[in-house]
Request: fold
Amino acid sequence: MNPYWLEEPSPARPEAKIDGRADVAIVGAGITGCSAALRLAEAGLRVRVHDARGIAEGASGRNGGFALAGGAARYDVARDTYGADRAAAFWRWTHDGLDRLAELAGDALRRTGSYRLAGDEEEREGIRLEYEALREDGFDAEWLDDVPGGAAGRFHGAISHPHDGSIQPARLVRRLAAAATAAGAEFREHDRVEDLDALDSERVLVATDGYGHGLVSELADLIWPTRGQVIASEPLDRVLYDRPHYARQGFDYWQQLPDGRILLGGFRDTSILDELTDVEETTPAIQSSLESFLHELAGEKVAVTHRWAGIFGLTQDMLPLVGEVPGRDGRVWVAGGYSGHGNVLGFACGQLVADAMLGRESPQLELLTPERFER
Ligand SMILES: Cc1cc2nc3c(=O)[nH]c(=O)nc-3n(C[C@H](O)[C@H](O)[C@H](O)COP(=O)(O)OP(=O)(O)OC[C@H]3O[C@@H](n4cnc5c(N)ncnc54)[C@H](O)[C@@H]3O)c2cc1C
Reply:
């Protein structure tokens, strides 16, 4: 079955073509590639985007639709791992990224807020530490012992993040692609790149996140393809979940869509090693776990209308890789490896890598540089 998001018809997009050699060839027309293409084209560069499939048909059109600020790790853990100042600056930068995304998204983003839920007492202690760290550093977050709606009485506490939102990710990315086209970027869909050296461009940006495994050999051990699976139900006639909810360290995530469907993903830990793959297929074990949980969330048996899988890129330290690929003489650049958290990060990192290619400095580049794995 098709991802629910991609069933929405793609609006007609006027063609843009650049003649001859591009300044930048981008591989991947997901949120990262489209965000970077827009930034670079607006700066006057000649940009050509290549995708093996259509726009947004990778993870960017197959995800949970959560638009969360912050990184993939818990904030208190991020402070311990990356350093307090760097973690705070990184979190702030993602909040700003979400605000910039909202300016372009139109009705593809709803600013609903989100709930991070504790599945048990141990997780409650963990997210309580996160909540306290967020408040200490001035981030907007609220502690709830229980949440309203369909999750009431089922969890062990929650952080409410009022800044977050819910996106129709395919609509959003197609909108970014349309804006990039209007700025002069050329899109070549259904055009698989086998060899970066064969691209007629000064520089190349690899924006393939979990899909491009092997395209850049140096990245093969740094970004691990990981599968996520999702289901969507038939529309329900009542609102049980008014915003994105996630629990068990993000292993389970769900939201109710404007048409009443529950979209639910996760349960990767049901067979975690099997999910370290770039085979984009659903599996019976995870699908049946998702389905049982869906019935619990709905409070009754509801029909599943959509099932799909998508691939994202996981990194060792849960931070993306953004910048020049070392040892490639400044020709090959990368932005990817969002560890399942790439809607806002993909947009922000697309802009960040574009800015870096334009010679604009940012403190985030030092944190996210691929060189960190060489040290
Ligand atoms: C099931 C699932 C649920 C998720 N839920 C969320 C969520 O709720 N919130 C969140 O923030 N993040 C979520 N993520 C992560 C998020 O979707 C990704 O991090 C993000 O979409 C990555 O965007 P991207 O543009 O970097 O890559 P993608 O959107 O994956 O695009 C990469 C593109 O590269 C193309 N490509 C690959 N190789 C080649 C090649 N050789 N030649 C040409 N083209 C190529 C692919 O066709 C693809 O279109 C989820 C991911 C999955 C899989």
